[in-house]
Design goal:
There is one protein chain. The protein has 262 residues and is α/β, with parallel strands linked by helices. It has one domain: Rossmann fold. It has nine helices and seven strands, in the order βαβαβααβαβαβαααβ. Strands 3-2-1-4-5-6-7 form a seven-stranded parallel β-sheet, with helices on both faces. Helix 1 links the parallel strand 1 and strand 2. Helix 1 packs across helix 9 and helix 5 runs parallel beside helix 6. The protein is globular, with a radius of gyration of 18 Å. The two termini are 31 Å apart. Bound molecules: NADPH dihydro-nicotinamide-adenine-dinucleotide phosphate and 2-hydroxyethylsulfonic acid. The site of 2-hydroxyethylsulfonic acid has 6 residues, from loops.
Length: 262
């Protein structure tokens, strides 16, 4: 966003899940520019180390701590957060970004393993992280939880069934948490993108890169940086401003299923 020495995010501690790729990775870079301290997690630790090196190269003063963590593992999530040193425990902003889709099948043909992976990651993983981190934020009287949902959490599209259900759940959790925290200074934001070109479709199609490319054919999709910029903007509003929900489309996308391609 800006190389702003006076940024309100300077020295804020931001925990980003799923920072090894796409939106999470771009968000880490964007928060670093603002002078934030970064706690990054994902399963591919080598990717996080590369990102850490890249961030430090462009901004050597950035404090980054990378953690190998599968958010589906409740015990590991709890242990990881409990074991953070005092310096790294006081999380100001939690970006619940880790997530994925698996498959694009009619429900009657769907793979149960795909469903479980999506629900365990997108819903349960987000809940484990939130449950462990929010009480500390309440105690300290400040905090911001930013959940990455999707347009798929607002509209169901053909064959989207279980992925959409997981993102509808994210939206319900975002709204529910906001209600439950209304008597605290904490803020809760949902960010709901349409088509963003990341590794998302490659993961959805189990590594079929040709099929993944077709998703973005004939339209200029959003870039992960577009979403990162929005996340940073939401996080840097004054404390009395709570951005509740942001839906972001590429210009030629009008709904989950309506995309004008040339
Ligand atoms: P990517 O596949 O590029 O990134 C997904 C990230 O999530 C990776 O860093 C991956 O890291 C991490 N992740 C996946 N599973 C786990 C896990 N079990 N534990 C920890 N980290 C995990 O996709 P995007 O950047 O596009 O996706 C980010 C979020 O944005 C997701 O929640 C997605 O649903 C959402 N979204 C994406 C859209 C798009 O069009 N791309 C649109 C709307 C929402 P690793 O594999 O190393 O663990
Ligand atoms: C990702 C966007 O439309 O592929 O959540 O579901 S979509």
């Amino acid at each position: 966003m800006s190389d702003n020495a006076g940024s309100v995010l300077k020295t804020k501690l931001v925990f980003i899940t799923g920072a090894s790729s796409g939106i999470g990775r771009a968000s880490a870079t964007a928060f670093a520019v603002e002078g934030a301290r970064l706690l990054l997690c994902a399963r591919r630790i080598e990717r996080l180390r590369e990102l850490e090196a890249e961030i430090k190269k462009s901004k050597p003063s950035t404090e980054v701590h990378s953690i190998q963590l599968d958010v589906r593992d409740k015990t590991e999530v709890e242990k990881t957060i409990e074991n953070l040193s005092e310096d790294w425990k006081k999380i100001d902003i939690l970006v619940n970004n880790a997530g994925l889709s698996r498959g694009l099948d009619k429900l009657q043909d769907g793979l149960i393993e795909d469903w479980e992976e999506m629900i365990d990651t997108n819903v349960k993983g987000l809940l484990y992280m939130t449950r462990k981190i929010v009480p500390g934020m309440i105690e300290r009287g400040s905090g911001h939880i930013i959940n990455i949902g999707s347009i798929a959490g607002h509209e169901v599209y053909p064959r989207g069934n279980v992925y959409c259900a997981s993102k509808f759940a994210v939206d319900a959790i975002t709204q529910g948490l906001r209600l439950d925290l209304a008597d605290t200074p904490l803020r809760v934001t949902g960010i709901d993108p349409g088509l963003v070109e990341t590794e998302f479709s490659e993961v959805r199609f189990h590594g079929d890169t040709e099929r993944a490319k077709m998703v973005y054919k004939g339209i200029e999709p959003l870039k992960p940086e577009d979403i990162a910029e929005t996340i940073v903007w939401c996080a840097s509003r004054p404390p009395h401003v709570q951005i509740a929900d942001v839906i972001i489309f590429p210009t030629h996308q009008a709904s989950a299923a309506v995309v004008h391609r040339t």
